Amino acid sequence: RIYHEDSYYDGKECVISAGRSGSKWMENVCQDLGINTNSNRVDIGVRVELPAGIFAHLTDELYESKIVYRTSKYEDLVRTFCMNPKGEVVNENTNGIVTVNGHSYEDPAKQTNNTNFALLVSKKFTEPFKEPIAYGQHIASLANMLAGGILVQRFGDLLEGRRSTPDRIKSSIITPTLSCATPGDLSLVIPYRQMKSIIEMLFALDKIAPGTASRYTLLYGIEVKFYSARVKLTNELETEGVKNLFTIGDGAGVTRGLIQASASGVYVAQTICARG
Question: Is residue 122 within 8 Å of 154, Cβ to Cβ?
């Protein structure tokens, strides 16, 4: 029998699958039961939009390229994520905070002339800091404060230390697919370290996809990927310290995505069945 707050759960085995939205609740459960957790990282970055032809030699062969770069200045890892050939940039609302994302369509009639993808800088914090999710939410909320939603800036304007304006965006060779994004200055929002790493990554990508570092390339912000606190588990996804209590999915911090979360559930089910 497992007690938490005013409720209890009774059974031979118990499986918790809270999902990422329940990560804070999961942390409270672990605290009540004396189960250790580790603070995970947070990924902060921008969504890049450029003409589809620049990345066509990559996306035609491999629809979603996964490119990871270690920066020379900070040795941070910057990665491409969620590449959308001939797609469009969209916004999403996470607990009242508007962040940027992207998608694409199979239907040729809905495809655009642009490709978009995220550039994310991964940062794992050390003690005594324990609030990586709040950190990412705060940065995203700064963009919301300045723009009322999503900011967009030309790469050339960023390098020249000036904000993008509606006229500068209109004069570009790229038509933004997220028309509601507000032209502005991402350097007022993104921390210096992450910004330097993103700029370095764009110039690195320009070597394999010439045109990436064009002054007209559009950068949207903020894109943030949150990670739940990772619960201390055995190899069978059983909590360390509370026997027969299993946690699965994103809420436990052991997966990152639908497929992996589903697989963790199947794995635990097989483990329980094997125990008889």
Answer: no
